TrEMBL record:
Keywords: Signal. The keyword Signal applies. This is Secretion system C-terminal sorting domain-containing protein. SUPFAM superfamilies: Integrin alpha N-terminal domain (SSF69318). Gene3D superfamilies: Integrin alpha, N-terminal. It comes from Patiriisocius marinus.
Amino acid sequence: MRYISEKILVFSLLSFSTSFSQFSEQIVISTESNGPRSVNIGDINNDGFKDVIVSSNWDNTVSWYENLGNQGSFSDKNLIGFANSTIYSSLADIDSDGDLDALAISGSQDRVYWFENTDGLGSFGSRQIIAINFDGAFKVEGADINGDGFMDVVASAMNELQIYWFENINGTNTFGPKQVIANMNTVGRYFNLVDIDNDGDIDCVSSSVSPQIASWYRNDGLGNFSSPIAIAGAGQAVNALYSADIDGDGDIDVITGSIGDNQLAWYENLDGQGAFGGKNIISNDVIDIWSTFTADLDNDGDIDIITGSANTLVDVSWFENLDGEGTFDTKQIITTDVEGVVAVAAGDLDNDGDIDIVSVSQSDSKLAWYRNNTILNNDVFLSTALKIYPNPANTVLNIELDTDEIDDVVIYNLQGVEVLKENKNLKQINIGNLLKGIYFIKVSTNQKSTTLKFIKI
């Protein structure tokens, strides 16, 4: 399995320490992208800082903004390429060369594209067609669907009522014909690519505005998907969807935001195999919700939720997971200084160890971020004291620590699920059995800890 997109970063980059979370006033990155529709985060130029990719519907561009490393300062707009009426773009290592390429869709030309990051520094080649005649192209992501170690592409075709995947044939960056994941028979747009049943491959979760339903589709590991498995009671006109381990039990739950009843809710994966419980209402106050994302915003070791609302009540807000089991606090508004929020994402933009938030709002053409001013306990040692190598790694990851002996080492995947743990002082950890992708390694010693990211190849 490989799932490189930073869009699904949900695990805190620092230790689980007692803290509180508050956010700065809005910091505008740019208003250069005319009518932005999507935002995602990833290290595009491999300098260790999280950059931002944006698709812009009104000026038909896919662009990126370089994080200059000065506590979250960003460059001007860097053009990746053009795609008519592009309403979604994302990042994935399509050509398996260790850097992030760009994926985009054209809403008016009904096409799916990718752009090669030619030098690993953010210089992109011309657009390459993955699919044409893709009616109502809406969203695109990269994931290893058939378990062959190469990045495939998944996209939703709203007017065809389908979600398809395209095989990256033998890693040649030549894509096969579209293969059906989900025949939704609905006006469906959103999907998540996660391992719902804990069998080591990527399943698909989808939602629709009409009729009102959320479902998931089981992958047999080779890219053959089951009929839809309904997730009960999933709101009135689901317009936002995300998946993460909300209750800390090691499996992936589902979050929905619905515009018909203004509800934010989550559904527990009861058995880790995809049998879902009923609706757990988080809030009835997410009017015109358009986007949701998850991250540990207060560094307490559980998953909180971020929302973006458009139209009637416009805001970027977050909901604190109070007990790590899915009991949430009331909505905390981060900003209302936006016009038509259509996407939110999260990542550590200023490299201070906590998770910041980024948003795009279409009506004011604004790309902005919000600094997380979390104050941490003093029992956290700096990540500079810990070194891991090689990175990327294939079979063995070396651990070098200049201070105390190591008490334990825990590795998590992008959804925050523990995948490997060693309770001993060690200088190497065998990662050969891990699937390909991005992971986080948390090293603890004498009640101190830190977390670093690595890539398994």
